[in-house]
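Subject: Interface between my chains keeps coming out wrong

I've been trying for a while to get a sensible model of this assembly. When I model each chain on its own everything looks fine, but I need the whole thing in one frame so I can look at the contacts. Pasting all components below, labels as-is. Any help appreciated, I'm running out of ideas.
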Amino acid sequence: MKKSFWSPFLSALTPYTAGEQPQDRRYVKLNTNENPYPPSPKVKEALAAFSVDRLRLYPSPDADLLRDAIAEAEGVSRENVFCGNGSDEVLALCVPAFFKGGRGAAFADITYSFYPVFCDFFSVSYTQVPLKEDYTMDLAGLGKADADGVFFTNPNAPTGIGVGLEETEKFVAENPGKLIVADEAYMGFFGQSALPLTKKYPNLLVVKTFSKYYALAGIRCGYAVGNEALIRGLFAAKDCFNSYPVDALCQAVCAAAVGDKAYYAAAAEKVKSERSRLRAELVRLGFFVPESASNFLFAGHEKGGEFIYRGLKERGVLVRFWNTEKLKKFCRITVGAPEENDALLSALREML
Amino acid sequence: MKKSFWSPFLSALTPYTAGEQPQDRRYVKLNTNENPYPPSPKVKEALAAFSVDRLRLYPSPDADLLRDAIAEAEGVSRENVFCGNGSDEVLALCVPAFFKGGRGAAFADITYSFYPVFCDFFSVSYTQVPLKEDYTMDLAGLGKADADGVFFTNPNAPTGIGVGLEETEKFVAENPGKLIVADEAYMGFFGQSALPLTKKYPNLLVVKTFSKYYALAGIRCGYAVGNEALIRGLFAAKDCFNSYPVDALCQAVCAAAVGDKAYYAAAAEKVKSERSRLRAELVRLGFFVPESASNFLFAGHEKGGEFIYRGLKERGVLVRFWNTEKLKKFCRITVGAPEENDALLSALREML
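Reply #2:
Try treating it as a single job with all components included. I did that and got this:
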């Protein structure tokens, strides 16, 4: 038998499965929560102005150009900002930086399914706290968990349900001994960000991404905002893995995007308006759909998520489903552009 | 006292220190082994042709567009190629993928100083095998080390010394039970790559970077070539950390570069010609300089590396030195463009 060079450690891991990313573009893609609108025109300008010859040089290892742009947009200082290769990398680095060698992490049982994978990859234990009957997060339960910190996904995925700023502050204030990592990937579509609270609470780290609200999933960039000690911890973890995770083009592109508040606010309003319309139509078609604070809908149907997924895929529309006991009735459907949502609704009317 | 949220694990780590990257451009930068020549003109064309609106979509999670371009350029199949966010990320992922939970890794005591940091980050043990008296790598010693595999840096850094293809094949063939990770960051300036041997030896993985030969340090991309089982192992490790590490712009830029063989071969010839000239001049100035197979020179002087580094920095020239017993006589000097090398030599003549 041929020797396998996979480590015993690797052989025991279960990697995360991302949504399908067909590159042939034949589908109406409502499965990975991308923004239906293009990035700000300022992104195009920034790319056109970029001097290609500069690419022969390493970028700033700490992504200082982009940190400054984010600090200005968010009303904090450079020292409060850390940038990574997607918010996935930022969240992954939180695990060794803050949760390893102690009591581990806690998070909801139904939430972003990469958290347990990160924990296993860094040999960190975790506690999964069940959602409540109404699919909302059990904040009291998360606070009581025997853990050094919490991944607090707000709005949560795949439920789309958001926690208002007042309730978030109460949760952070009541748990001063726990680091609350607020994963706000979808917060741009809700508008209740805890980011300003990072000045008041040293146990709060807010993580954001350029992939959704900023319509830049293709560029891979995310960031964390928090007090200096937390940010220094993320830098120390980064410098044990990869010195220069944010490339020079990415910095230029994201710095341009974060400065164009008006463009993105208008795009988000269009998404929110379609979200209302789509939800009402889905309810009319017999779906159970909680109010969404994000750019997707969590849609349950008695025929089951897999039936809906397969029927839609046959008809050229991609959505996401999970083959697990608690989620099997549901699909997660990204709010697309009006014509994409119409295509989804036509396909569903044909199927049901 | 305020509670620290740093994990006990993080507090015990010593991060890697990258070379200085002053962003003000006032220095002649001969400290981080960047290519003195710009990227291929095809990179500019690829950027100009890139449709910015596509950035709203996630890239191919496995970087298939770029894998195909690399496979074609290297004469292998897509299944033999893995891409990461810099070769640093590729090398870092090798540690949990191949060396964790077993006997750990081995590498030279004087080599790329990120390897022990990667190992500590993933709690993997390692053996450091001393260089021989003449600063060459002790391949017999590395073969005998009690480890599951070896980081075999060729040409080695910071010595710049290369191992010829015949000797490399012997090393790989004599150690069928050890995974040999050939870190060929500087191989483009030597021309003895072990990459074709990956078809013959399942225990060989070759790692390359776009940062040096391809003059794209600013874009952060590296890749590994090896048999399918090894590549699948790297994908499994990646999917425990970050699903989409190589962004869409990066894929387009690097695919354009890897296709322009003539341009890069000509640029490397210019670097090699300057390398000869610079080495001869340094020897004339009293330096001890081993023959270099890379784009930098390992230059020892009786006055010590720190003296040379400080004197040069005062005169506007950056080189790298290490304040350790074995390296304290040396500086590592990147081979720059002719005028940069002249600036270095003038400064040295003034100092010595």
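Reply #3:
Confirming on my end. Residues 261-284 of chain A form the longest helix (24 residues).
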